[in-house]
Amino acid sequence: DGQFKYSNEIEIEVGLPLEFGLDQNYPNPFNPVTTIKFALPVSGNVNLSIYNSIGEKVVTLANQCYDAGYHQIEWKADKYSSGVYYYRIEAGVYNSVKKMMLIK
Question: pLDDT tens digit string along 2-39?
Fold first, then answer.
C-alpha cells in the first residue's frame, strides 16, 4: 500500500579510548591483505612493525605521530611468502605483540 514509518533516531557518543590497545588482525589467517587496529588514549609517536618467524623485521607500517583515538592500518603482503608473522606496536610506554598467519 506504499506506507512507511521511520524508526526513532538513536544517538551514540564514541569517546577516546581509556587505555592503549592492539587488536588481533582481521582476517586471520589472511591472503594477501589484513587490517590491524589499535587504540591510543593520548597522542604520540607510534611504531608498528611486522616481523617474520625468526624475528627479522620485514616492514615498518607506521612510524609517526597519531592523535588519541582509534586507528587502523592495512598490510598488503602480496610480495611476502606464506607463514607466521608477528606485529609489534610501540606507543610511548606501551608495547604489544600479536601473531598472524599469511596463507597463499
Answer: 888 888 888 776 788 889 999 999 999 999 999 999 99
pTM of the model: 0.84
**3 state DSSP class of 28:** coil
Neighbours of 30 (CB within 10 A): 18
55, 97 contact by CB (below 8 A)? no
Which whole number is the average pLDDT over 86-101? 96
Helices and strands counted in the chain (H then E) = 0, 7
Q: What is the pLDDT of residue 13?
A: 67
Burial 37-65 (b: 16+ CB within 10 A, else e): ebbbbeeeebebbbbeeeeeeeeeebeee
